[in-house]
Amino acid sequence: MKTNRKPLTLNEKRLIAALHEGKEHAKNAKELAIIIGVDKRTIVSLVKSSRNKGYLIGSSHKQPYSGYYMITTMEEFNQTVNGLNSARKHMTNTLNGLAKGFQDTFGISLLEAPPLRKKVK
Questions:
Q1: How far does the chain reach from its first CA to its final CA, in angstroms?
Q2: What is the pLDDT of residues 80-114, one digit of tens each?
Q3: Domain boundaries, the chain
Q4: For 10-103, CATH number?
Q5: At what angle do helices 29-36 and 40-52 cross, to 10 degrees?
Q6: pTM of this prediction?
Q7: Rg of the Cα trace of the chain?
Q8: Distance separating alpha carbons of residues 47 and 91, to the nearest angstrom
Q9: Burial 85-114 (b: 16+ CB within 10 A, else e)
């Protein structure tokens, strides 16, 4: 199957090479950071950018398979997508709470507010 993926950066290539197939071979961010020679935040960024380019990188937060891996099954794909959807829901709830707090504090909704350029008093 032919793909039209964007080219990977050198560190993205290193990430893909370091990942094994299947969640039973997941590696956590700390392990990957040591292998690639970057910090854990960079690993998270590399996973995100590689996924955005179409690479099937799975993630699991459940022991004993906690970490990142190359997706090989529909089950692994669905588990990763469900985890990302759950994170999105939590983030949406947080954003909604902040928007409500803004409205309660300043008496206007974010839709009506001018752009914030100065410190809010």
A1: 57
A2: 999 999 999 999 999 889 889 988 998 888 777 77
A3: 10-103
A4: 1.10.10.10
A5: 90
A6: 0.81
A7: 19
A8: 19
A9: eeeeeeeeeeeeeeeeebeeeeeeeeeeee
